[in-house]
Amino acid sequence: MTEKPALTLYLAAPRGFCAGVDRAIKIVEIALQKWGAPVYVRHEIVHNKYVVDGLKALGAVFVEELDEVPDDRPVIFSAHGVPKAIPAEAARREMIYVDATCPLVSKVHIEAERHHEAGLQMVMIGHAGHPETIGTMGQLPPGEVLLVETVEDVARVAPRDPQKLAFITQTTLSVDDTVAIVAALQARFPAIIGPHKEDICYATTNRQASVKAIAGKIDALLVIGAPNSSNSRRLVEVGRAAGCNYSQLVQRASEIDWRALQGIRSVGISAGASAPEVLVNEVLDAFRDRYETTVELVETAKESVEFKVPRILRAAD
Ligand code: SF4
């Protein structure tokens, strides 16, 4: 029998589920227990196929638009947040709806509204087309939120009054890229008002820091996450920027390109905020099948954040 080659696996921590994702999944599960199937969910509740398929098996029906939901069935809005018009339409149709928007995204919505009421126009740093960006921009009337994605966009943005501006950010951006965009905004619009740091959430920040901590030790980085998961894609970029040239997103073990990994001695593993630990374990097992592995945990922060589910789903209510 041929001996397996030796490999060190550096397991980043924190990784995987954040408090907002955990809460959103619980909301769908409790809603199914409370109202029975089908419960409709507008947009993937979190960006992970494994999670979505598991909830489908319990009776959740995923749709992209509210008009696909019958009036008499409950509907849940995803963790990424929704434009204001969506819950307003659900209320008009007298539907039962539960908003699973992460409280850290809702906090950004409230910031945007507060600035708007104070007469400021908003600049949002975010990714065009991402549901969180659509949801946050949809808190204010059209034209009140200007989107910038890059430092170059800052030169092009054309506010109504440069003296009356504030900025907000998507919660799942690259911490380092955002610092550069904020600096460009402050250089061009010295009066711009912003949050104390940015709106990037604790989970995004912590996962990026742990990837940075392992990037210098490893020959390859695998981030478990979905191609439409913003925070997972940022982890791949952070790994590459921190010096790990082979930095790849995989949804699960079957997507690992073993040929590309030939000859490596060390691999870093992390997971985006919407990727369940069961998929991390699947990847670790796939490595154990092929290598004599040593696992080293690299923990750069401890997390204890928890969010309650909305009152309508709490047992005592
Ligand atoms: S990544 Fe951050 S903002 Fe998004 S759901 Fe998780 S905790 Fe909330």
List key phrases describing it.
iron; alpha/beta; Cobalt-precorrin-4 Transmethylase, domain 1; 4 iron, 4 sulfur cluster binding; Rossmann fold; single chain; 317 residues; binds iron/sulfur cluster; 37% helix; four-stranded parallel sheet; iron-sulfur; five-stranded parallel sheet
Q: What is the N-to-C order of secondary-structure elements (H for helix, E for strand)?
A: EHEHEEHEHEHEHEHHEHEEHE
The low-confidence runs, each spanning 5 or more residues with pLDDT under 50, are none
Number of domains: 3
CATH architecture of the largest domain: 3-Layer(aba) Sandwich
- Strand adjacency order, main sheet: 10-9-11-1-12
Binding site for (2E)-4-hydroxy-3-methylbut-2-enyl diphosphate: 47, 80, 130, 171, 229-231, 274
Active site: 132
Cofactor: [4Fe-4S] cluster
Keywords: 4Fe-4S, Iron, Iron-sulfur, Isoprene biosynthesis, Metal-binding, Oxidoreductase
Describe the model.
The mean pLDDT is 97. The chain starts with 5 loop residues before the first strand and ends in an 18-residue tail after the last strand. It has three domains: 6-17 and 202-299, Cobalt-precorrin-4 Transmethylase, domain 1 (3-Layer(aba) Sandwich); 19-102, 3-Layer(aba) Sandwich (Rossmann fold); 103-188, Cobalt-precorrin-4 Transmethylase, domain 1, CATH 3.40.1010. Helix 9 links the parallel strand 9 (220-224) and strand 10. Helix 4 (103-117) packs parallel to helix 5 and helix 8 packs parallel to helix 9. The chain has helices at 19-35, 49-58, 85-92, 103-117, 131-137, 151-156, 175-188, 202-215, 230-241, 277-290; strands at residues 6-13, 39-42, 60-63, 75-77, 97-99, 121-125, 145-148, 165-169, 220-224, 246-250, 266-271, 292-299. It is of the alpha/beta class and 317 residues long. The protein has a five-stranded parallel beta sheet with strand order 10-9-11-1-12, sandwiched between helices. Iron/sulfur cluster binds next to helix 1, helix 4 and helix 8. (2E)-4-hydroxy-3-methylbut-2-enyl diphosphate binds at residues 47, 80, 130, 171, 229-231, 274. Isopentenyl diphosphate binds at residues 47, 80, 130, 229-231, 274. Catalyzes the conversion of 1-hydroxy-2-methyl-2-(E)-butenyl 4-diphosphate (HMBPP) into a mixture of isopentenyl diphosphate (IPP) and dimethylallyl diphosphate (DMAPP). Acts in the terminal step of the DOXP/MEP pathway for isoprenoid precursor biosynthesis.
